């Protein structure tokens, strides 16, 4: 519990507010942006989402006994005035940016837990999830207690905490971090998505380290263009600059698109930056020894000096890059390198080039979360490097998402695949014919199959596969559901592949 004056101290509220002593001395027992979660003496923050507007639920929050309402100063004045007249015992506070205000008061409400916990933010179009799992494993091998937040799940040590977002809303983040502090967690490892950064969810977190994996086209349905998308990701470094921590470190992939712009941005902030990559110009780099269907091996160099050989169970060049960012972190924070390398070798991440077939099967079938052009190109290039007879690709594109990437993904699938099967992903509320038409514009030839039912498409790919082929089921990875306009069903690509294998290879 806090007094409102403690929460709002130092925060610039709009000029029209007259914060009376009674308002400032109001006890706040909780904060919520969902009116259904409001209880007596709670503070409600009305935030505008992508599909709904919290201002519509102010009255509902009041009826649930909210004592203070924070709202957008651009909201309809007559609407707010009417509410104020009807509920004179409730205090209304206007702010320029309710989302940012929510982040600010949430941090204060929970006594800023990230001031006491090492906090590592990882951003990038691809590789965030794998990188968080690698870092969690390494930190635990070095006897640290770790909380992880990301796409697949959120965990405090081994306890899972359910949320609906890659990076939860600020109040939810601070609540998780408060629980982590009580569990004496030493490190928070979190994916920091571009949308979360743009929506102020990560504001007022005290980062120690920011890792930047890469940037390629994605989320343009939200950001509008690549410039705005990059700006959202760069905000992570601004938040690092504002952090209360003494040591602040940026770790950046030297080969990412826009590297010069990223590095110049970091230099202007005055933050220490180190680079990694499969590039001898990087501070921390790897020399590939082998890439095959069993493992990945490379030599690790720090500042030009050979350190150790590294073996990964995960396949692909992109996983070398992900692991190099972690080894850069290990060197900079003086973690035991050999323990860290040993820990990374054990890491497998659900739905990331996850091989579903067994050694007894004559081909490889793998499930991957690649739902962006760059992600799909990476996985297909890696599949090609394993020297298969043929590459068979099953993919689709999600509805209600960036339409620009759809024909690009078709072009990539056609370029690197011998057989392409086009199917549904998460349709959501969009017309399936619109999604398919957008994708099909990218095919230059008519040599692809279109099978709308995803299960049928996967069965067709497995049935078609011959000795030494590689089947890539792209787009959904770890997801265990499929979203349609009227329902969400259980659907796991891995389970469907196993069903198909059982049907076509039951005598093996």
Textual characterization of the structure:
- This protein has 508 residues and is α/β, with parallel strands linked by helices.
- 36% of the residues lie in helices and 22% in strands.
- It is built from 18 helices and 25 strands.
- The strands form five sheets. Strands 10-9-8-11-7-12-13-14-15-16-17 form an eleven-stranded mixed beta sheet, sandwiched between helices. Strands 18-19-23-20-21-22 form a six-stranded mixed beta sheet, with helices on both faces. A four-stranded parallel beta sheet has the order 3-4-5-6.
- The longest helix has 17 residues, at 226-242.
- It is globular.
- It starts with a strand and ends with a helix.
């Amino acid at each position: 519990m806090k007094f409102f004056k403690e929460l709002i101290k130092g925060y610039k509220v709009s000029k029209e507010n007259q914060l009376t002593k009674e308002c400032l001395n109001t006890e706040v027992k909780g904060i919520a942006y969902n009116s259904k979660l409001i209880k007596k003496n709670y503070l409600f923050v009305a935030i505008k989402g992508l599909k709904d507007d919290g201002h519509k639920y102010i009255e509902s929050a009041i009826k649930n006994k909210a004592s203070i309402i924070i709202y957008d100063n651009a909201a309809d004045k007559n609407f707010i005035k009417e509410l104020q007249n009807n509920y004179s015992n409730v205090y209304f506070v206007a702010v320029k940016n309710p989302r940012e205000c929510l982040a600010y008061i949430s941090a204060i409400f929970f006594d800023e837990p990230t001031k006491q916990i090492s906090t590592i933010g990882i951003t990038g179009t691809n590789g965030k999830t794998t990188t968080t799992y690698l870092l969690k494993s390494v930190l635990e091998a070095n006897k640290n207690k770790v909380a992880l937040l990301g796409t697949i799940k959120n965990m405090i040590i081994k306890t899972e905490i359910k949320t609906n977002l890659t990076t939860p809303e600020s109040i939810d983040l601070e609540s998780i971090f408060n629980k982590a502090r009580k569990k004496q967690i030493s490190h928070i490892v979190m994916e920091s998505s571009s949308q979360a950064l743009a929506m102020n969810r990560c504001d007022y977190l005290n980062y120690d380290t920011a890792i930047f994996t890469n940037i390629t086209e994605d989320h343009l349905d939200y950001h509008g263009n690549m410039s705005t998308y990059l700006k959202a990701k760069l905000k992570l470094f601004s938040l690092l600059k504002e952090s209360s921590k003494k040591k602040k470190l940026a770790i950046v992939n030297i080969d990412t698109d826009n590297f010069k712009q990223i590095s110049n941005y970091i230099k202007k902030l005055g933050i220490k930056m180190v680079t990694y990559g499969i590039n001898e110009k990087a501070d921390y780099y790897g020399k590939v020894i082998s890439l095959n269907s069993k493992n990945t091996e490379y030599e690790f160099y720090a500042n030009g000096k050979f350190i150790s050989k590294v073996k990964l169970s995960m396949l692909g060049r992109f996983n070398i890059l992900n692991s190099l960012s972690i080894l850069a972190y290990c060197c900079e924070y003086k973690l035991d390198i050999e323990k860290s390398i040993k820990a990374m070798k054990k890491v497998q991440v659900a739905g990331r080039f996850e091989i579903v077939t067994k050694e007894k099967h004559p081909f490889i079938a793998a499930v991957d979360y690649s739902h962006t052009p760059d992600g799909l190109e990476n996985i297909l290039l890696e599949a090609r490097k394993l020297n298969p007879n043929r590459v068979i690709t099953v993919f689709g594109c999600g509805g209600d998402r960036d339409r620009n990437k759809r024909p690009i993904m078709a072009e990539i699938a056609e370029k690197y695949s011998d057989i392409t099967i086009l199917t549904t992903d998460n349709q959501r509320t969009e017309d399936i014919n619109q999604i398919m038409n957008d994708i099909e514009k990218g095919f230059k030839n008519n040599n692809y199959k279109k099978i709308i039912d995803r299960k049928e498409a996967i069965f067709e790919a497995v049935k078609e596969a011959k000795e030494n082929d590689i089947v890539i089921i792209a787009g959904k990875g770890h997801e265990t559901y499929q979203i349609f306009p009227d329902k969400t069903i259980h659907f796991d690509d891995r389970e469907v592949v196993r069903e198909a294998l059982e049907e076509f290879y039951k005598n093996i």
